């Protein structure tokens, strides 16, 4: 029977073909037209666990199903819970994809498809890391539980209650999540902090129909003009957010963290070149990494109003809307900020306009201890899998359920990203480097061995 490394080397191509199978399933959780596709993806993931003879369940929710699987307990050893998601973001705009979003294509050493890195490819590295153990040794050296959901991209509304109601089933010592990035190509990382999120939608309603802007302009309030004015009160040119009380609970970046960030090999010129911009921008007084990782932000995510077809149409629109989000740092409360934001918008909403405000999903930020035995185990596993020791970083993205794991299950959390920051997550031409996919599998297989060295 081959060892794990030999098994992984012999099955490199097979692992890629399995990933392609999952990527072909358009499991877009936010679009009701893809409800059956999401279920198909859940069934596919469950079948992988059944093929390993793991105890497997597909658990229905009010939304999309949760897939749960576990290997047998190993007395005296830690229990790891792998969390991931099989749902993906919508692929639009479709015309910007070089190849179809749900037809995975190998290009320049990458696999290009929606969900390639977020999170199907990264999630499967842990499935295949466990596969290597089960197929080469017949068992895992620790108990590994898998919790794979289908609603991460829409806020994990049903997973939180599931965790609360199934604490015994999900009990573990450490949660392992790969849904983030390395620091740079060839430089793996362990992410010890995530930002939280608060997502909002604002709709302004004016006249009861679109109007001729010549005949009616200057006589009624234009909702699009009003929307621009209201949004301009939220953040200024210096990057300072003007929601009342927004910074009340923001902890300053520590001196040690600022030193650690400054020592990382970050090249701002290459960063600008990669993004196609001639300048960076954000809250004054902070570096680019500090703003991305450890300071709160506000960004408009979408604007809709009036005529948007080809050519000109002189219309005074009857409605205007915006979707925008705040990325939060630890101790900021999404609901507290939402309440303050609503009150602020109500005060600045002009006469002649009706305002509708909606809070979508939200979650707090999170920071984990960097001196735990689990972080040390992960560092050793990553160094073996990638051939390079990881650095410790924070991340500007959000994984809403992380705080639930820490608070409700009293778990340590390992955030191990195999992706790269130019993987186009949530954008056209999402990709996953195939060499990093294979390194992630090797690191995952080694992680189970390193965790087994920790005595409970």
UniProtKB/TrEMBL annotation:
Listed EC numbers: 3.5.1.18
A Pfam family matched in the record: M20_dimer
Keyword Metal-binding attributed: yes
An example molecular function term from Gene Ontology annotations: peptidase activity
Limits of the Peptidase M20 dimerisation domain: 192-351
Record keyword Transport present: no
UniProt xrefs under Gene3D superfamilies: 3.30.70.360, Zn peptidases (3.40.630.10)
Gene assigned in the entry: dapE
Record-given protein name: Succinyl-diaminopimelate desuccinylase
Keywords carried by this UniProt record: Hydrolase, Metal-binding, Protease
Organism: Bremerella alba
Ranges in coiled-coil conformation: none
One GO BP annotation of this record: proteolysis
């Amino acid at each position: 029977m081959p060892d794990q490394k030999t098994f992984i080397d012999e099955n490199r191509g097979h692992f890629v073909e399995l990933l392609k199978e999952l990527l072909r399933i358009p499991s877009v959780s936010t679009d009701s037209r893809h409800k059956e596709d999401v279920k198909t993806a859940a069934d596919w993931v469950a079948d992988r666990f059944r093929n390993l003879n793991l105890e497997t369940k597909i658990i229905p929710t009010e939304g999309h199903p949760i897939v749960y699987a576990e290997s047998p307990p190993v007395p005296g050893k830690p229990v790891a819970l792998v969390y991931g998601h099989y749902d993906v973001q919508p692929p639009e705009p479709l015309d910007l994809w070089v190849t179809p979003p749900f037809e995975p294509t190998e290009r320049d050493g990458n696999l290009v498809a929606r969900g390639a890195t977020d999170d199907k490819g990264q999630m499967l590295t842990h499935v295949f890391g466990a596969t290597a153990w089960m197929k080469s040794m017949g068992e895992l050296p620790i108990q590994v539980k898998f919790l794979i959901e289908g609603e991460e991209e829409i806020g994990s509304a049903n997973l939180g209650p599931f965790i609360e109601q199934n604490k015994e089933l999900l009990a573990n010592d450490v949660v392992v999540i790969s849904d983030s990035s390395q620091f740079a190509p060839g430089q793996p990382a362990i992410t010890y902090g995530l930002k939280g999120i608060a997502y909002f939608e604002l709709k302004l309603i004016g006249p009861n129909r679109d109007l001729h802007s010549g005949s009616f302009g200057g006589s009624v309030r234009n909702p699009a003009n009003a929307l621009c004015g209201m949004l301009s009160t939220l953040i200024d040119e210096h990057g300072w957010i003007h929601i009342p009380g927004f910074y009340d609970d923001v902890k300053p970046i520590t001196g040690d963290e600022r030193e650690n960030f400054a020592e990382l090999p970050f090249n701002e010129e290459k960063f600008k070149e990669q993004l196609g911009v001639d300048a960076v921008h954000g809250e004054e007084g902070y570096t680019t990494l500090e703003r991305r990782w450890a300071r709160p932000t506000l960004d408009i995510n979408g604007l809709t109003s009036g005529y948007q077809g080809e050519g000109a149409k002189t219309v005074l629109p009857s409605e205007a809307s915006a979707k925008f989000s705040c990325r939060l740092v630890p101790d900021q409360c999404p609901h507290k900020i939402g309440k303050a934001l609503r009150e602020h918008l109500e005060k600045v909403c002009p006469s002649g306009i009706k305002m509708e405000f909606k809070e979508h999903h939200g979650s707090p930020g999170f920071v984990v201890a960097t001196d735990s035995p689990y972080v040390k185990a992960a560092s050793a596993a990553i160094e073996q899998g990638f051939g390079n020791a990881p650095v410790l970083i924070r991340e500007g993205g959000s994984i809403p359920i992380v705080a639930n794991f820490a608070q409700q299950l009293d778990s340590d959390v390992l955030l191990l990203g195999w992706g790269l920051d130019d993987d186009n997550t949530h954008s056209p031409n999402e990709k996953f480097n195939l060499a990093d996919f294979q390194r992630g599998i090797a690191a995952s297989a080694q992680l189970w061995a390193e965790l087994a060295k920790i005595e409970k």
